[in-house]
Design a protein that fits this description.
Number of helices: 8
Structural class: mainly alpha
CATH class: Mainly Alpha
Amino acid sequence: MKKLTRQAFTGLGQLLVILAFLLFLPAWSLGYWEGWLFLLVFFLSVLVITLYFLKKDSRLIENRLRAGPAAEKEKRQKMIQSLAGFFFVLVFIVSGTDHRLCWSEVPLYLVITGNILVILGFYIVFLVFRENSYTSGVIEVDKDQKVISTGAYSVVRHPMYAGAFIMLLGIPFALGSWWAFVFVFLLIAVIVWRLLDEENFLSKNLPGYPEYCENTRYRLIPFLW
């Protein structure tokens, strides 16, 4: 348990350092207050989720620590994860550059709204994690895994991605950059690709999943898709 806790907080610390580097180096200023506010919101959100599940469901934390292209087993998913990581990085680089070159003028109320969307997205992800202990950072099926159809899973088939999309759409607002939306939309497109590939994998490997798809019609947005 101590090792897992150390790994979780080491990973969080490394992520924050990387995000700060991606934001403030292109901005070439530590006076980028939108960046500091976002990092604070991001850190506190991840910290609360991590502390909760280290206490309530350490297995989930262990599964979530295995993530990224190297952790994926399928070649297609390795490529998808690499593209997703590339566009995610560009969101922050472009935001920092935008701040330095003054490309965008985003009003304060939208910056605040963006941070609220980030918190909301994390909250939805938290609800998903609490409902589904099998949620992993890679596409796989555990030997004792069952279909989860309660909670948010009764509304859409991929509530974690829905929460992630809300968070992603909030980031450009929070960082005060209209241009960052270009890479957020590209990232969302890549995640949709991952989502469809994941559905195909689960339909073949998780008993009861095809029936679940028939009963829960919508993937991400109720009444739309």
